[in-house]
Description:
Elements: E1 8-11, E2 17-22, E3 25-26, E4 30-31, E5 35-46, H1 58-72, E6 75-79, E7 86-90, E8 93-98, E9 101-106, E10 110-113, H2 120-135, E11 145-153, E12 156-163
Parallel strand pairs: 2-6, 6-10
Antiparallel strand pairs: 1-5, 2-5, 3-4, 5-11, 7-8, 8-9, 11-12
Helix pairs in contact: 1-2
Residues 24, 32, 119-121, 152-153, 156, 158 line the site of the ligand Nc1nc2c(c(=O)[nH]1)N=C([C@H](O)[C@H](O)COP(=O)(O)OP(=O)(O)OP(=O)(O)O)CN2.
Amino acid sequence: MNNSAQYKVRVTKDHLVFSAAHFITFNGNICERLHGHNWRVAAELSGPLDENCYVFDFIALRDRLQKTVDSLDHRVLLPMKHHMIEVSEIDEEVQATFEKRRWVFPKEDCILLPIENTTAELIAHWIGLQLMPVIGSNASSQLELLQIEVEENFGQWAICQLAIPQN
Ligand SMILES: Nc1nc2c(c(=O)[nH]1)N=C([C@H](O)[C@H](O)COP(=O)(O)OP(=O)(O)OP(=O)(O)O)CN2
């Protein structure tokens, strides 16, 4: 075999999609209205071949990604680290405030994300972090790079690449 070959696996499926509401801020203090998207997700792993001649098992990657996607489906995505959007849990509700605006949601309809803003880039990063435990579970793994892609609207992809720590 040619030792200079480089390998990747990539997973994307019709069901690797979540429908969720969000609002972001941009350009300082411009805050969007609450709105929704059907966010499509893909994951790619790069690294050498293992004893199965796999970079990584498609099925394990697909199933962990599906679990993460499902946790976001039919939810309101709220940022916990935003410097202007305050998010708090009050009994069975979640309240978000920005300047004079206030949104209140049932707690079960929300997912509170430890990110600064619910941009496609930071959602891709968060999804990547959720995949790390399954990717890092094999002590002999020499996987190099995880790439997560999130499509917020048709043809508008954000991509996050995460280096995989070597064991
Ligand atoms: N690099 C990024 N750019 C933008 C992001 C982002 O996450 N990363 N997000 C937004 C907004 O969330 C915006 O709502 C994107 O939605 P979209 O529907 O594409 O925006 P439009 O107002 O153009 O809606 P149409 O329905 O297509 O008219 C913006 N940029």
